[in-house]
Amino acid sequence: MVFSERVTAITYNQIMPVIVDFVNNSNILTARVMSNVKTWRGVNMKFPIRIANSTTGGSFDGLDTFDTSTTNNTRSLTFYVKAYEQSVVVPGIEKAVNGTSDKQVISLVTDRLDEAKISLTEAIGTLLYGNGVAKDIEGLGLIVDNGTVSATYGGLSRSTIAGTNADVTAAADGELTLDLVKSEMTAVSAAGAEHETPTMGLTTPVVWDLFDKLLTPTISARYEATDIRGYNRVSGKTPMGTSVPESELKGAAGFTAISFRGRPVVADDKCPSGLFFWLNERYLEFDRLISKDLRQVDSNPDKTEGANVDIKQPSFLQLKDFMSPINQFGEIGALIVMGNFICRSPRRQGKITGITTASYSA
Predict the structure, then answer these.
(1) Where are the alpha helices (DSSP H) in the chain?
(2) Is 218 strand, coil or helix?
């Protein structure tokens, strides 16, 4: 019931010591990518690639002269630092009021940092699927592309060097089929080579449900039901290309995965509509620039409950410590991420686009 002022004026309210997130959902690609960051060094990062085989060999007999001409079949993918910041602002009066009460439930500074951590991580999650426009960190929109979004990748022409193109296949009439999923996986694989096959499928919750329904009639064909719910789990630290029963996570949080051809397929709320990715994570990495002038901080919120409980983010954030402006009473800090999301082999990445429905095809 709603009490009158007779009661409310003389009785304390109870404030729970945890803030519940009403805004954000899963951010799985970020958890996977940031669990395996590399260190940025130098002005740019260069990755040598071989673009062709030598043509100087050939059959011979007797004293035939060998072709000893030199070849030039090596190039470099080149990447530059991108950066993202999230300010953390704490008004001085509000901090003073919050800090003087013996009834403080949550520190105002903790609340401000939690909001900033979540906001930045969510923004990075969006950028990791994006096109890397202008100052933006590069994402799968640019990486898993065949020249539609960008004519170049890593400074190399996609029309000249075929390996800079990913495989992009439109779903005919918007239909997802098992044949389509299989053929896309094959398109980005080298036959029989474990290292050159995708390690994870990534899609939207809607498409994940469609895929799950496609597999329902084929459970007996071993498209996997390994625990009592029929699904395995994947965390940010689960080895590439694998999923495990929840019991093997040993208390660590994880997200639900369907196993298809031995590879986990997971849903991510950040994934753009209608897409299904096959990713080879062996060739994907975030190279992070670390500044000695910034302080490393935990990326997970301290007093906020939501998707972060299950999907733990690795500690990839740095903090520019709080400072007081000369003409304002308050403190301003900033969370910062610097570096770039890099793919060393776009041809091993693929996606199906325009998915709106599903049609079973054995």
Answers:
(1) 5-8, 28-33, 92-100, 108-127, 140-143, 178-187, 205-215
(2) helix
Residue with more model confidence, 256 or 59: 59
Distance CA 170, CA 329 (A): 55
Tokens of 260: 């298809």
Helix (H, G, I), strand (E, B) or coil at 92: helix
Q: What are phi and psi of 90, to 5 degrees?
A: -125, 105
Given this model, what pLDDT does residue 29 score? 93
Q: What is the largest CA-CA distance in the chain?
A: 111
* Residue (of 284, 288, 279) closest to 47 by Cα position: 284
Tokens encoding 302: 């301290």
Question: Can you give the length of the chain in residues?
Answer: 362
Query: Is the pTM above the cut of 0.85?
Result: yes
Give helix 108-127 / helix 92-100 axis angle, nearest 10°.
Answer: 130
Burial of residue 57 (CB within 10 Å: 0-12, 13-18, 19+) is: exposed
Write down the mean pLDDT value for the chain: 87
- What's the rounded Cα separation, in Å, for the pair 89 and 86? 10
Structure tokens at 230: 């029929």
Angle at 231 between CA 271 and CA 214, to 5 degrees: 65
- pLDDT at residue 19 tops 70: no
Spell out the SS3 assignment of 28-45. HHHHHHHHHCEECCCCEE
DSSP letter, residue 216? G
Q: Where are the alpha helices (DSSP H) in 1-103?
A: 5-8, 28-33, 92-100
